[in-house]
Amino acid sequence: MRTVRQLLSARSSRSPGAHRRLQALFFFAAVNLVLLAFTGPLMGGDTVIYLDGATRLLDGRPLVERQPSYVGYIVIVAACQALGVGLLGLILLQIGMATVAAGTVYRLGAELAGARAALIATGVFALDVETNRWHSYVLADSLYMSALTVAVWCVHNASGSPRRWGRGLAAIASLIVAGLIRPEGWFVLPAAALYWIARAPAAPIRRWAASLALAAACVVVVLVMAPRLSGNISAVDPAALLSRGQTMWDYDGWRVTMPQPIPDDVGAGSADRAIRYAASYPLDTAALMAARVGVHLIHVRPFYSTQHNAAIVLWLVPVYSLALLAVWSRWTHPLTIWCALVFASQTLVVALTHADADGRYLAHVLPMIYPFVGAGASVVAHRHLGKTAAND
């Protein structure tokens, strides 16, 4: 009888947290379904790439130009069309996966700072309309955001123990899925390997050997992925963006003045020209990369309305402040280190190419930041409640 009472007590102690998590996820899904009811499926600038790619797959034709870089998303679009659910079914799938990602945000927040931080993180994610609007677009960004968030948890959950083969395979699979949806996902693979090596309970000599093996594996991955990404690189043309001082895609404002291109690089490929240009003008290139990251993080745009920019500032200032407070207070936590590596990998893509004109690239990493917002808010609440209790 005592054992039964203990089991019932344990179940009742766990149920409030699980109930709150379900409420948070229901709220998240409801917010996004309401947004979808108002807007319906929306089209973006790259939508034609995915729709044409899906048609090609269904017709048995190969993908062309930029399409191989997004083969994972194109396969999902083609599957929705083949099943007859159309674009509405695709958007509902994206909202469903975003809800799974919201559950992952809850887990990350709980791992970082407990249930209160988890609930705050999930609630903030649900209220971020600027980010959640992308779930209604026929674009790869929503599913990439969800896949990246899930991959962050899977990699962390598989770290620290070499015997968790099932979790390790799940983590690798989640990383591959993210890379197939958007090419930025491949940049997370070496970051994950570094994280696993750092947390592995192994002797220093084995860690050095693993690091060398990782470097060799990165070279192999680059050689394998280069043909798949060549169409995307040609379309983006990083060398031209670099020599023009472009900070944002498809916008000529907010440029950085750069030296003239190297005359004898006319016939070289875009990636080769970009590397040679950066080697010739390292300080100017570094300044441009920093400007791109700055534009990426501030998120405001000169072509947005004043109200839109004001809303972004009012949202991001407390988000960044609370997240930095959490990083400062939990900088030794493994999850802090891992999320910093992922954030750096995604920011590196922006620095090497461009910030996006509509801010989608920041939306990719905000779900990973929100657990730290919850942790930071918990730190503030704890200090405030402590002072109140002391005064009482």
What does this protein look like?
With 392 residues, the chain is an all-alpha fold. The protein has one domain. It is built from 16 helices and no strands. The chain has helices at residues 2-39, 47-59, 71-83, 86-113, 115-127, 129-132, 141-158, 165-181, 188-199, 204-236, 238-244, 270-280, 282-298, 306-329, 334-352, 360-391. α5 crosses α16 and α15 runs antiparallel to α16.
Q: What are the defining features of this structure?
A:
392 residues; mainly alpha; 76% helix; disordered C terminus
Helix and strand arrangement:
Blueprint: H1 2-39, H2 47-59, H3 71-83, H4 86-113, H5 115-127, H6 129-132, H7 141-158, H8 165-181, H9 188-199, H10 204-236, H11 238-244, H12 270-280, H13 282-298, H14 306-329, H15 334-352, H16 360-391
In short:
It contains 16 helices and no strands. The protein is mainly alpha-helical. The chain has one domain.
Average pLDDT taken over every residue: 86
Could you estimate the helical fraction of the residues in percent?
A: over 70%
SSE pattern, N- to C-terminal: HHHHHHHHHHHHHHHH
What gyration radius follows from the Cα positions, in whole Å?
23 Å
Strand content: under 5%
Number of domains: 1
Q: Describe the sheet with the most strands.
A: none
* Count of runs of 4 or more consecutive helical residues: 16
Distance between the termini: 42 Å
